[in-house]
Amino acid sequence: MFWRKKRRDSAPSVDEYLRDVNGPPTAVTGAPGQAPPSEFGPPVPPAASVPAGGFSLVVVDVFRITGRGTVVTGVLADGVARVGQQVAIVRDGAHVASSELGGIEAFRRVREEAAPGENVGLLLRGLSKDRVKRGDIVAGR
Hints:
Layout: H1 14-22, E1 55-58, E2 61-65, E3 69-79, E4 81-82, E5 86-91, E6 94-106, E7 109-111, E8 113-114, E9 119-125, E10 137-140
Antiparallel strand pairs: 1-3, 1-10, 2-3, 3-9, 4-8, 5-6, 5-10, 6-7, 6-9
């Protein structure tokens, strides 16, 4: 029938093509559960666990609301954030600043607390916008 095409037996498979492009496979070295050596440097160690009653949030964006304070946004990684909690700003494992959590907002709703996995904005009192950068960790105590 005219709509059926002939099979091409001479066409290389995807695996053969990738072997030609990437070269032969190499053995992965290192202990199980550890990242293999990389040309980008040593693997990043896992983050320290959050203390009991605390939380952590990796900062995605920072902005200032006049008359209110500095707002950081991101996804709450673990723990429960509550209004009035003391927080620390951590950059590259070093303490940068401290503040108090003045408010929590999620999708334009003011909240008293936020659970892990929620995308939230945290209002930090008495902290200038210049002290916090994208990638910093906000850790509650």
